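Section 3.1: Structural characterization of target chains.
Under the original work plan, the team committed to producing a structural model for every single-chain target entering the pipeline before any wet-lab resources were allocated. The record below documents one such target. The sequence was received from the expression subgroup and is listed exactly as submitted; it comprises 379 residues.
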Amino acid sequence: MAKNDYYDLLGIPKSASADEIRKAYRKLAMQYHPDRNPGDKSAEEKFKEIGEAYAVLTDDTKRAQYDRYGHNGPQFGGGFGGFNVDMEGSDPFDLFRSVFGGAFGGDVFGRGGGTRGRSTPKGADLSIELSLTLEEIAEGTTKKVKVRFQKPCDTCNGSGSRDGRVEVCPRCNGSGKVRHVADSFFGRVVNVTTCSLCGGEGRVAREACPTCSGQGLVRDEKTIQVRVPPGVASGNYLRLSGEGNAAPRGGRAGDILVHFVETEHDLFTRHGDDVLYEMEITYPQAVLGDAFDVPTLGGNVRLTIPPGTPPGKLFRLKGKGIAHLNSPGRGDQIVRVTIHVPKKVGARERKLLEELAGPSTGGVDDDKPFFHKVKDIFR
């Protein structure tokens, strides 16, 4: 794959001064730093590329060779981004710290300026599901939830050491990172990974704590309160910062992600922040009209059905739906009328229906409107 031009990567002309190169790098490095783009592999690759470009263009000898030969120069065969910039023992994060360290007293993203490549550990996040009824969603609620999590071991105070003594990790020499260098057809490839022995801490216990087996963490259970705002839906989630698993040896605790699950309701169907209620009435009630106590999410309300209501008619109860999420106001309740049609009728009901239907050849009596016939029958 063809490599990008270093000047184009930094967005500078070939005549750019050292200050212009540095300024361009600082801007782009802040934009594409992996800590600002968690999980974004393309941003991480971009971060490496601009670091590589900066390392070359700020070295007079390498810049002169690059200007003359481009990426085909005799010195340019690999490196931390696939380009050999002769930075033995370094990586893109080292370069970043060298540029920003003086101004910010270390890594601006909290990695610290003490030990190269070591980042502050963070505990693992937890994910739980919380089932909610439409009534709870409509008004919001507070629920208590039991969760199992990891906390610092009381025996060793989270150090993982039996006697509290730790030593420099023999695998990474205290850096918390392990470099894997391999030569390929395209040049030298350097891959930097977190040390598996110390977990990126750079130090290990001399003698493991018997309670936590040197992990510094033990399992426990706690009850948390989850404040559910009104208007949430399935697929929404709430992040509770610092309530997740503890980090080994004093790092920042992880978070809890509460995923909301809306349970099916016996009476209502949700449509956004509106709710639909199917109300079944009899044929006489539809023809003559009637008043009903209609259930809502907040209790019963009185609804009057006017005479001559057809099946499928919709009635809107303003403000009887679900409160809007993060905004004032609330949805409505829609009442849809359906007509109950019995599968079997008694002799008297059949006679009344036949009388209502009239003679098979005639239809409705022209001298008495159909509506009045119905009223006469059901008096």
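The chain has nine helices and 15 strands.
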